[in-house]
Structures are given as structure tokens and as C-alpha cells.
Amino acid sequence: MTQESIFTRVLFGLAGHSRHGLRLKQIADGIGESPSTTLRNLQRMEADGLVERSPYDKDNWRLTPRVVQMAIAHAEEVAREERQLDELKTRYSRNPN
Question: Among 8, 28, 79, 97, which residue has the least CB neighbours within 10 Å?
């Protein structure tokens, strides 16, 4: 398994747990990796600003605001594009009376 795919599985595994996070064993079990491999990857991802220890429980890991902000920015971009397409559809579907 490549490091990138482990990172991806960790990101997906932590999705929905942004407030309190998950314990190492929960993450490792969820992605099918050993706790030691998972911890090494979490530490690399922490250095990259993708995950952090939860302030509520230092044994838990969670996504950083940076990851959530990227998701929000993507959702906003999609909404902008949808509005522009809706405007275009409206413009071209009017009856030219």
C-alpha cells in the first residue's frame, strides 16, 4: 500500500469526527493498518497540517481546520458554478416573444 493511499484512508476515516477525533486504534482498525504504521502516517500528516491531536483528548486525532476549509471552499466553488449554469439555462430557455 502506498503512503498516499494510507493518507487518503486516514482522511476518510477521520471524516465526521472533526470535533473529538478518534483514538489511534480506532483509526488503525478502520483503515486496516497496524497502529505503528498508522501512527507514523498520522505524524507525517500532522507535520503537513492535515491532522492534529484533539484538545479535548490528547489521545485522539482529528482533521485540522485546513482540511475542512478546503472542503468548504470546494463546496462554495461548486455552488458558484451551479448558479452560473442556472443563469445560463434561464437566459436560453426564455421565450423570445
Answer: 97
**Domain co-membership, 22 together with 35:** yes
- Reported as a pLDDT band with limits 50, 70 and 90, residue 97 is low
Residue with cell 473529538: 20
Parent domain of 39: 1-63
Cell 493518507 belongs to residue: 7
27 with 69, same domain: the answer is no
Residue 4 and residue 8: Cα distance in Å, rounded? 6
Predicted local distance difference test score (pLDDT) of residue 3: 67
SS (H, E, C) the chain: CCHHHHHHHHHHHHCCCCCCCEEHHHHHHHHCCCHHHHHHHHHHHHHCCCEEECCCCCCEEEECHHHHHHHHHHHHHHHHHHHHHHHHHHHHHCCCC
CB-neighbour burial class of residue 35 (10 A; exposed 0-12, middle 13-18, buried 19+): middle
